[in-house]
Amino acid sequence: MGVGVGQILSRIENVMPKLTQSEQKVARFVLESPEEAMIMSVQEMASRSLSSSASVVRFCRSIGLKGFPELKVALSADLAQGQKTGYFDLNKNENTAEIVDKILSNVIQSLKDTVGQLDVAMIEKVAHSLYMAPVIFAYGIGASALVAEDIAQKWLRMGKNVYAFHDIHVLTMSMANAPKGSVFIGISYSAATKEVLELMKFARKSGLTTVSFTGFGRSELSDISDFNLFTSLAPEAKVRSAATSSKHSQFFVVDVLYYAYASININDSIDKITRTRKATNELKNLPET
Fold it and tell me: What is the pTM of this model?
């Protein structure tokens, strides 16, 4: 999983709740003293953070890095970029101009953090699985349901059999009879939505290829999935809900996956998009009833 320039401190801050206690000690030290951490050895950081060398190594892997040297490189890039844009919540009696600036900042930071943790190789693997799939299922609840609908709309234009059923019973019946090679995409920003987790288990049991689409970090949902797609995991706030901070990055990842899919056979993709556009344009010319 690659690290974008100037993104590692934000990633550590956002994934903190998912770390073990010993890893959180390391995380707090890095966030408080990134300049010192950048030039330390594993043993020095373990001592200063009141943890162990093993905890430092596990911490690096928990935040998506290959090891301690990559952490030092990422910290160097972060510090070279200066202060991150940041996430902001709304305050009492805030004027509209300030709200606009804060929302823009949140969107920019969320997209930057998501790009910083995108695994290009994983995107390509998922794209090829979707390309070979006879049927695609996508499911999410609440704001994640909008992402499932976006997936369905995009891949329908590519000529795929794709469904984003809201009724969990209908979805389960459909997956039970799905042909070999079909794909199930379970969408849950928190990675803790009970219905998504149960459907993921059922999809695996039924022999479907499974893809989890969650906020960054290891979870039960990601552990039982064949492939994992991650977005930035923004810190919680009183007014700025998870749906607000995540939806832009979720749609961004879907767009990246869509274009990666289209590039597998670009001429065929263009042909299918042209035909669907022509079909919908003809509807505009239908006489009113």
Answer: 0.73
